Amino acid sequence: MADHDPARDPLYPDPRRQISPQERDALIAALDQVLPTDALLHHEEDLRPYECDGLSAYRRLPLAVILPHDLAQARAALGICRERGIPVTARGAGTGLSGGALPFPDGVLLSLARFNRILELDPVRRMARVQPGVRNLAISEAAAPHGLYYAPDPSSQIACSIGGNVAENSGGVHCLKYGLTVHNVLAVQMLTIEGELLTLGGEALDSPGYDLLALIHGSEGMLGIITEVTVRLLPKPERAQVLMAAFDDAQTAGEAVAGLIGAGIIPGGLEMMDNDAIRAAEDFVHAGYPVDAAAILLCELDGTEAEVSEQVMQVRNLLLDSGATEVRTARDEQERMRFWAGRKAAFPAVGRISPDYYCMDGTIPRRHLGRVLGGIAELSRGYGLRVANVFHAGDGNLHPLILFDANVPGELEKAEELGGQILELCVEVGGTITGEHGVGIEKINQMCVQFQPAELTQFHGVKAAFDPEGLLNPGKAVPTLHRCAEFGAMHVHRGQLPFPDLPRF
Ligand SMILES: Cc1cc2nc3c(=O)[nH]c(=O)nc-3n(C[C@H](O)[C@H](O)[C@H](O)COP(=O)(O)OP(=O)(O)OC[C@H]3O[C@@H](n4cnc5c(N)ncnc54)[C@H](O)[C@@H]3O)c2cc1C
Questions:
Q1: Half-sphere exposure of 470 (CA within 13 A, CB side)
Q2: Which helix (H) or strand (E) segment is 311 a member of?
Q3: Is residue 71, in this structure, part of any structural domain at all?
Q4: For ligand 1, what atom is nearest to the CA of residue 157?
Q5: pLDDT given for residue 480 in this prediction
Q6: Which ligand 1 atom lies nearest to the CA of residue 348?
Q7: At residue 17, does pLDDT exceed 80?
Q8: Can you give the residue range of the structural domain that contains 80?
Q9: CATH number for the domain that contains residue 322
Q10: Per-residue pLDDT tens digits for 284-332
Q11: CA 96 / ligand 1 centre spacing (Å)
């Protein structure tokens, strides 16, 4: 999207927030007083790398990017923004797929890239205390010599930051068995917009009061700036084995997933790829996938030697009984890693077969996998856009990749509309419009479908309790009721919205 295209503005700029060139210069001068030269960017060429996150269809330049070295600098810069009513968007590694780190017009982007140190790693207490800019994979790499690892493993783990993972409550292949980020974080330290440093949670399994630690997970930078995260480390399983099952139609593969879990098996990971995704990944990394299969399931089993050996046989039989045309067990560790390499590279692989793709993220009850995959295929035909599916099947967390060409006028809008329809299909079967990528700006309209006005009002109440002036990442994740009314997903009676006193940010 071109900068400042009011017709497609996802952030609904509020005229009260537009600042004059003089105010901008005064802001930069004030930030310059509290930050070293290398921590403040404000020239256009320096701002460009920060104009978008992984949802690159939307781009905007912030007024300034700040890259503090420490807490004192971050707090001082936040204070200046607050005094002047300037919105602040936090940014980790910028790999988010829902536009959560898209800069606000006339706002400041606060990058946590320099908060990149592992402060403590204790193999006895099985925990690590890290700064928010530490990469997800770096935690497991640091824990590996102790036979430990950090379980949630987004496919972007080589790049994404743990602060971003908390803010999005990220998932990954192994979250089916080991839980999402929220289940693997013991404590979070965060700065409020008022500059107060809060510690939520602790090393004990429970803490008194409301569970604010859970609340901050998935809060998309709207409640506070995460400045430290304490994660739980797990012992590496003695053995991991992966089975790959091929199916000659995707719905049967979807039903096999429900069958496996229904039989009481919780695999370490259970992933599905359809034919478009299989072909793209095979061509890219030569994982050894059967390119004629309509779908494959990758099922990882982990545990002790004895447990894994027994479950491999059980799962193999269940998959064959569910209609798999072929089931292969990785012959050795190299083959296991190759099977996973194909899955982990599936997104970039799909990027090679289409000029652009739009990645959706919705979650459905597993028993509806077959039905929803059928529905997606029908929508894809209706819109005339191919959809490749590669996703966390065990969690019922879909990732339809809608293939389009942004150079063809109208295709992006068509892809977005198709994406919206897929999310609404997820809601229709009792699911949700996000599994792990967050709402950001991408799914903000579908929040109006998922929630009632009274629920959205409560969300705004929570936001206002942490951030009364609505300065932290405004315009993301929770829609205003005006927005829902315009989207047509809200009953407006005689021109009057429900809850007319609700703030507009
Ligand atoms: C190829 C690819 C594969 C992916 N696979 C997965 C996957 O398997 N599972 C998954 O869950 N996601 C996946 N993602 C999405 C993305 O990597 C995750 O959402 C990740 O957690 C974002 O981390 P980040 O550091 O890049 O955050 P950013 O994109 O920088 O920010 C994301 C959100 O977090 C907020 N934020 C960031 N840091 C802080 C902080 N310190 N304090 C407060 N708020 C903060 C931002 O404001 C924004 O709202 C994938 C992305 C890509 C590009």
A1: 19
A2: helix 305-321
A3: yes
A4: 17
A5: 85
A6: 1
A7: no
A8: 6-111
A9: 3.30.70.2190
A10: 999 999 999 999 999 999 999 999 999 999 999 999 999 999 999 999 9
A11: 4
